[in-house]
Amino acid sequence: MRSQTTRESVDQLSITDRLRQTLRDVLAVPDYLAASLVAETALFGALPELDSMAVATLLTEIEDRFHIVIDDDDVDADTFETFGTLSAFVEGKAAARS
Prior knowledge:
Elements: H1 4-27, H2 31-35, H3 52-66, H4 83-97
Helix pairs in contact: 1-3
């Protein structure tokens, strides 16, 4: 039987990896770029592919892939500041649905 910490680590890895894949698919960035995303990686304003139109598409795709609901009031510019802030946002929404 796995410990709670191990399961949480696997869940965390799963969310960040799935988020990398989602960003890669929606933004059509190369695999190496998606794989290099770490918590400190700047997103909005740093990735030319992530413009306001892409944000709307990305949010819809995140809802679909993570089975979460994102209200307009849930999102602000800080959400897309870094890969870490976006990951934390998705993790929080996923935890709330559990």
